[in-house]
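SEQUENCE WITH STRUCTURE:
===
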Amino acid sequence: MPDRMTERIETSDPRALPRALEVLHAGNLVGFPTDTVYGLGAAAYDDMAVGRLYETKGRGTEKAIPILLGDASDLSRVAQDPPEMALALATRFWPGALTLVVVRQPGLPESLSQDATIGVRVPDHPFARQLLRAAGPLAATSANRTGEASPLTAEDVLRGLGGRFELLLDGGTVPGGRPSTVIDCTGKTPRLLRPGPIGYDEIKATLGLG
């Protein structure tokens, strides 16, 4: 059961970013708006914080948690020797609705994924990118209990998770919409794992595959 109050700060408040960094650096969780839904994030390299992310959501550890970045140039911070395919797609489609599955850096917590890969994305949301640029890579998933509706407002987040995490950054209503396209970049050719807003034909054309 919740045992604390979740602090709430509007993203327009000058205290929002420094407070978020303080919370994340202490190994705690921050809710924030993205280009789709509200996310709940933890420092990607903090094993205990990632564990809290699973616990707070009630998420099974067999389900991987993706990583959000502030810029495409940060891909090598979480991907081991990112292939040219991934770099080309990141340059073309980030920020945006494309998640790339890559071989993860060995220093990332094993709890993020049960295999050697990780999903990575740069969200197309100005405040989220500001947060990610300042905090570094965040393990992030939708800010709701597993199985419940994805939150589009701060009120949605608080109804589902209020008191279970430390800080909520209120950026108003987010657009929702389709989940990102997911492309596996670990093989010789791109493999579509989940259809989404960016079509597979567009992926192939970007890579000169016809």
Notes: The chain has a mean pLDDT of 95. Residues 182 and 193 are 5 Å apart (CA to CA). The longest helix spans residues 47-57.
